[in-house]
Amino acid sequence: MDINKDKNPKQQKVLLEDDLIITINGYKQVPVKRLIYYILCICSLGTLFLLLHWFPKWKLKLLGVTVPIEDAPELFIENSWTSSIIHVKVRHAIFNGKISDIFTKYRNKGLKKMITEQSKKEKNNLKKNVINIDANDEKLLTMDQFEEANAEKKLELRFFIYQYIRFIYNPISKTYEPIINWKDPEWTSVCSVINGLESEEVHTQRQRIFGINVAEIQQKSTLSFLLDEILHPFYIFQVFSIILWCTEDYYYYAVCILLMSVWSVFTVLKTSKENLKKISEMSRFTCPVVVYRNYENDNVNSVTNTDKNKKKSGKGKDKNQNNNGTEQDQDSPFKHIDSSELVPGDVLVIAPDELETLPCDAIILKGDCIVNESMLTGESMPVNKIPIKDEELRNLDFEKDDDIITNLGNCCLFAGTNIVRVRSDLNQNKNKMLAINEENENEEDNYSTFTLIDQQQQNNEEIVSYSNIINKKLRNEGENCSVSSLTLVGPRRKRNVKYESKSAYALVIRTGFNTAKGSLVRSMLFPKENFFQFYRDSFKFIFVLAILAFVGFGASIFNFIKYGVPLSIMITRALDLITVVVPPALPATMSIGTSFAISQLKKLKIFCISPNRVIVGGKLNLICFDKTGTLTENGLCVLGVHHIEQSKQKKLIGTQDITKSQISQELQPLTQQNTQLLNTSNDVKVKFSNLTNHSSKNQTFFSPSYSAEIIKSVSQIRENSSISDTEKSSIISKRYIDLLRYAMATCHNVKVIDDKFIGDPLDIEMFKFINWSLEENDGSIEGLTTIVRPNKSNLENNDDHQNEVKINISSENEMININNKNENIIDSIYNNSSKELIELGIVRVFEFISNLRRMSVIIRRMYNKESKEVVSDNLEVFVKGAPEVIRSLSRKDTVPGDFNQKLHRLVNKGYRVIAVGYKTMDNIKYHKLMKMKREEVECDLEFLGFVIFENPLKPGTTKTINALNEATIRSLMCTGDNILTGISVARECNMIDKDACVKILKFVKGSGEPDASSNSGSIYGGRTSTAKIYLDEHIITPEETTPEVSKIEPSKPQIINENSESDSESSSETNSDDSDDSDSEDCIAKDDKKTMLFSKDSSSPEKQETSEKVFGNESIIKIDNEIYAMTGDIFDWILHNYSEEQVNSILKQCKVFARMLPDQKQLLVEKFQEMGYCVSFCGDGANDCGALKSADVGLSLSETEASVAAPFTSRETDLKCVLNVIKEGRAALVTNFSCFKYMAIYSLIQFTTVSLLYSLAANLGDAQYLFIDLFLIIPIAVAMGRAHSYHKIHHKAPSANLISFKVLVSLLGQVAIQMAFQFYIFFWTRKQPWYEASDDTSGELVLCYENTTLFYVSCFQYILGAIVFSVGPPYRQSVYKNFLFVLLSALATILVVVMLFLPENPFLDFMELLVLPLSGKIYTLVVMIINGIVSVAAEMFLWPNIIYLIKGKRD
């Protein structure tokens, strides 16, 4: 969106994201200025080049001038997220077409009418002929401009690419516009786009506009990476220091620093290149695809007779056999191309088993698909995609509704998502097409025909043919032609049945980096910059040290002039002082703690690709967790079942009341049912069983009646006098168990390919739960598509169980007397019991349809009778789907009375619930069965029970969350899953207290619904700015009690934002919003006092009706002891309609964010960062990449796409890795603090020593410098960084502020103490009787008493500083456990003392040290000891008290 309000022709501002603004500046280089720049760079020996490299805006101003954008050959672009400036050149290309082909807003059909009317007014009223084409942007269009925009001509296409978004120059508005939201105005209906691109010229045009359909990342060269790294100011300073030391023959230390720098650069270079390569491999994807391009028809909707006579039927081989170069029918409209050639407007043919991953964003036109959108949502739940409606396609506007994931998610396919199943929908209008065929069967028709095969009739391959005249009639029925009535128009050709009738068709709308996946990749490549406070403060501190160095530089020059030191030595010594105050080894030393932490994390199988983020982990105070695959295991598993059983409080049908008619009605044809049971009358109630799974005590569900053993036991006692009601109830419950198991075995679309289950993950888990086997029908039994059978292990276990039951029954001594009326029932049972079930055959499948929310199967039983395999003559139907749907299709007397309460409890616990129903059918002929509508089959069901799925927590999740809670680190959930599931998981892992009051923010019904008159700029999250939200309390009632129900008053606002589940078959699950309105009062309990309405408009007339308390626009929404939960649409809405103070207050209370899209996750992270949180995001999917990249610390639990974006990747999926990152981060942060303070005090101690010696025109010798740097500083600093992290996370994070009062008091206090002792020993030495002054004023004096005493004292101070600044608990282990540090410190101290007391020897001569008298040696040692005591005492006692007195008592 262009937001350039000042109308500056040289500058243009564009809003790319919610808060990302780029400024485009016209620019032109001036050759004379460029020549001057080169001369100045040479004269300054590259200094000017470095300065302008660090400040690129200065360079641009020096080399050229700003010019109007329309004349600019180059541009420089500024970004509101970063301080960097990008310089780009405008590219040029030839485009044959119209301006309106690129900027389609000028092709609006209503626009011409407006201009015509305005033209008439101009003639009458002499008004200026202008038309407002965009009320929001106030852009006016004249008649001349309109004609220019729609004139066919040869154009020069001017464009540039920024962050992989293509901007094209608009000569009408004289601005650059991104084409990411391009839409062809001709996309008015499905009929208008179904035949694809009009011609090859159109394809060429659009490829010029959009480029190729490949998200290819430009790889930086090794030289570019190297220059970016080594031109950093730190490395430049190191190069300067190395050159200076080499001029002074100080080679050893120079080589050491050089090697450290080279290794550091190499490591960063290697990591950067590998990371970029991984992102490139993830983003770049191409594959063979099939598109429908009917180039031969100039007008696909109207084919004239002349056209038909000119067309020729194509001959050749079908390319369907090979997608890579085999000969194909050149006249075929089905073109096999590479996905890189796709452009918006192409019609993608999605054939079964051909396309696995979508290469572009597309809208379904006909057919439907089930796709796995885990790349976008993180949830591996398959989602059903249905065709778009004409009205939706016509009203589609990417400029206004750029969030197509939310607005068109049910009919849009996204790049990078995986296709699970493809299905054509032509069978849905078969009867209509047949009727049209009959109507036109006598007409003379020379049109070619296409053949359609009913997807649901794959067995009998019934073929329906119809002609183009049918297609014409279908289209003439109305402007809104249905998707299923479409047919393809074309000349007589060799038919391709697979593509014509078994495939889904989709309209390509976005390609390349414009796709949803491309946007995800761009968010990884160009995240919002985060600056950690420690690094900011370190630069400030170094700047202060640099100022101090220049002050010392000036003072040194004054002293050297005073003593008449030669100029060359004067300059060298002064520059030496700068390298003393700002040590070149500082960057390497500061990275010691980080390097050690990385090595420790690597041992824990946590790998880091961004070392700078390690210490950031030490300041984390907010952890955002994805749910699926992070807090919980990947995918769902069956928790168990609640099957139906006979209520023991009710009696069965009395033996005196039953009749044969009742038997026939109550016992539907029960033959071939090996577990056939007595049914109940309407007054006999059923109930849910307790939850049954593999770990439950009652294992009856896993011992069904595969054989007739139990029935035989009943037949053996049929002559007994009576049968107890308990036994009858047990038999009936057994029947329900059998039927529910049969439903779980057959009601699915699972296939077996290469011994692997393929299909909906929920179906696969359900089938595995009962442990049956599955195979495709080999044709031996006609009419069966799939056969399932119990495994042998099940049968063997069942036999054992049956034998036990048989013994128990036969042990009854009491004889039972059966009434004659009941004997018929028992005989029937006995006869049926002689058959042994061997397998179930699936005859027909009514697949899942999202709007019906159910699927069903028709099956036959196969059994052994007298050692012969027999197929049952009777049919049985199993239906599964959303509980409320199955309940509405079931007989009321078969549904338990506590259905609503049971469902509500399960849903509020976050489980996914699927209900199952059953019925029997009389035997009918196969062809009649194939013609039956599903409405005839899916009715009058008998309710069988619930199948419950859960997403179980990972073993370490609860422990990790508890540890974070103890450390007062806030944790929250950010998931794409259902909100109730999220709340349940949060409670289960203690992210939310078990007794906490959780309130869900929801929209008030009827408020804020956008309509045609709504301003697009005021619509967010699917609601206008006038929408209102209220809090709905989430209540969980105990399993063993019935919830107390308080009815919702009519005046209370109702829920409108129903959490729609995925549209795949697995979405038969339900949530609290899925319940019928009539039962809502049974399912949801509300407390009126806790329901509050939040209104942006405090004067809303609805506020008094819906809430006792209304929050105005400026009020703060904050309720103590309450936790909020919200969905992505609510989050998006409040960001745009509430003040920052209100938003912050709500977000601080919110623990669960559900139904969050990838960009919403990223926006949430950035919002918390703005609030001052140090945020970590922990996820495992590609949908988390943006959030992982934007977070201060991103932690991926997967080695796929997420690992590319995240600084940290854990090979272990246990959440303990989060704790490890925090512990090691805190240890590294404290270590870096210690090392920085140590290097600071080292530089200031040495600065003091050198300054005192400079006052005498003396200096430290090279050997002394070498001893200090190589044998004291570097070893001790390295050892300091090897302290291990503390085993427990402290409740308070360490400080990251280097210039805080606490840090400055300690550092400056220690510096003052060390300087005081150095000044003391310096002046004490000059007063001793054995002191001999030197008269050397050349500036190279080393051998003197002042040098010797200062050397010994300063060496001890270097060791002392390391001990003082080595921090132990609560962030690192005690300093005494750092064996290497203790050893090196002890050895260094002993070495200094030994050197102090050594007699004259060659070593002291090499070190250029004098031998002190014994009294001087002892006194110097005493001074060193006192220095140590004072420093340690001050650090432990004095500084804390000073801080306490000045800052006051702290928590």
UniProtKB/TrEMBL annotation:
Domain of life: Eukaryota
Residues in P5B-type ATPase N-terminal domain copies: 19-170
Natural source organism: Anaeromyces robustus
Domain P-type ATPase A: 331-407
Keyword annotations from UniProtKB, A to Z: ATP-binding, Magnesium, Membrane, Metal-binding, Nucleotide-binding, Phosphoprotein, Translocase, Transmembrane, Transmembrane helix
Biased composition (Acidic residues): 1060-1082
Region annotation (Disordered) ranges: 301-337, 1034-1083
Main location: membrane
Molecular function terms, GO-annotated: ATP binding; ATP hydrolysis activity; ATPase-coupled monoatomic cation transmembrane transporter activity; metal ion binding; P-type transmembrane transporter activity
Protein name per UniProt: Cation-transporting ATPase
Keyword Nucleotide-binding: yes
Transmembrane segments annotated in the record for this chain: 35-55, 250-269, 541-565, 577-598, 1239-1257, 1263-1283, 1303-1323, 1349-1367, 1379-1398, 1418-1446
Recorded GO CC terms: membrane
Family according to the record: Belongs to the cation transport ATPase (P-type) (TC 3.A.3) family. Type V subfamily.
